[in-house]
């Protein structure tokens, strides 16, 4: 990996926020924080030389907005805008027609950077650079039937949870319901889960998810593509799984150790189907005639095998909907525990992401009684 320049190290949160396409006000605020509240010449040069270069990955419209905001902020302070910044903005004005982009249901690329504190994690899941960057193709048009291609707070929380607790998922078979852009699955592969099964009921979302896996060097039909010098064996599967039509026989084939879900408690009409899926996935495997547990892997034995558990992260936007969920959990003989405080990541891995309110997310563990 290319070593960070001194400027990139100083402005790490600024660059991370830019790549994640945080609100431009937030990005400017982070830059101010690096310079005692001012937008210095060095800060302008960083935006021009580093951030605008990153816009070549397809986020040019966002870069244009940031440059406009940067110029306005410097001028309001009666500061001097660098000629290079003016010239770069003029180039964007001539090249990119924002009105055309708004009309289309476009996909943009966000780079989500999980930043590990020095000395915080000694587990192998912590990258040598202390930074895990995940490129994700997602949608800007989440209100037009494209919610599955958007990045939601609960998926960020669940990803932080996975990366902060690699020992819970390493060498385990993991199954995610409603996988969306695939970020949680990519984090599971990073912590060396044995098998990662990603599912979604929307075919367009599933197609977008597969593109994201490929961008993160994951082969969803076979195994994790090996990086130079590394022996990786995580198997990643992508499955079209509408909850309302999923059969118990189909679900019983997967036998995961851990089930995960982010922001899946949103529609009362979908909840009975979701709970039925969870019940099937959490159920114990059938016994063979000799009384031993039947498992998918011949080297797995029942001794010392952890009980199956589902981790569901959710923002409770509607209390009535959540109460329906709790009622169904009880009716289906499941046990639910709020483990938000107990399992909250000890360190923020997304400290630059001011738009992400992790305090609004709750984490629940669900198991069979």
Automatic annotation (TrEMBL):
Q: According to the lineage, what is the superkingdom?
A: Eukaryota
Where are the residues of the annotated region Disordered? 287-306
This one is known as: FAM86 N-terminal domain-containing protein
């Amino acid at each position: 990996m290319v070593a960070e320049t001194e400027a990139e190290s100083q402005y790490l949160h600024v660059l991370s926020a830019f790549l994640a396409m945080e609100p431009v006000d937030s990005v400017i605020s982070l830059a101010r924080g690096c310079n005692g509240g001012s937008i210095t010449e060095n800060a302008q040069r960083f935006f021009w030389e580093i951030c605008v270069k990153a816009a070549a990955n397809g986020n040019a419209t966002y870069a244009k907005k940031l440059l406009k905001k940067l110029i306005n902020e410097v001028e309001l302070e009666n500061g001097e805008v660098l000629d290079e910044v003016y010239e770069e903005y003029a180039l964007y004005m001539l090249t990119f027609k924002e009105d055309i982009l708004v009309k289309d249901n476009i996909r943009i690329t966000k780079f989500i950077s999980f930043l590990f504190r020095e000395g915080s994690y000694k587990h192998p899941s912590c990258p040598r650079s202390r930074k895990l960057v995940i490129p994700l193709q997602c949608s800007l048009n989440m209100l037009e039937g494209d919610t599955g291609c958007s990045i939601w707070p609960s998926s960020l929380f669940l990803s932080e949870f996975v990366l902060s607790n690699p020992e819970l998922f390493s060498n385990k078979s993991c199954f995610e319901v409603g996988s969306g852009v695939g970020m949680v699955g990519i984090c599971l592969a990073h912590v060396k889960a044995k098998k990662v099964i990603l599912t979604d009921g929307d075919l367009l979302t599933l197609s977008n998810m597969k593109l994201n896996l490929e961008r993160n060097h994951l082969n969803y039909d076979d195994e994790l593509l090996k990086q130079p010098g590394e022996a990786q064996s995580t198997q990643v599967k992508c499955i079209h799984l509408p909850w309302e039509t999923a059969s118990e026989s189909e679900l019983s084939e997967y036998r995961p150790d851990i089930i995960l879900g982010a922001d899946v408690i949103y529609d009362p009409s979908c909840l009975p189907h979701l709970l039925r899926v969870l019940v099937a996935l959490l159920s114990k495997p059938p016994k063979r005639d000799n009384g031993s547990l039947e498992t998918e892997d011949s080297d797995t034995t029942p001794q010392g095998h952890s009980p199956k558990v589902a981790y569901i992260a959710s923002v409770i936007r509607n209390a009535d909907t959540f109460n329906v969920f709790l009622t169904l959990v009880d009716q289906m003989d499941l046990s639910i525990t709020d483990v938000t405080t107990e399992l909250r990541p000890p360190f923020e891995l997304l400290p630059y992401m001011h738009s992400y309110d992790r305090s609004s997310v709750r984490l629940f563990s669900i198991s069979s009684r």
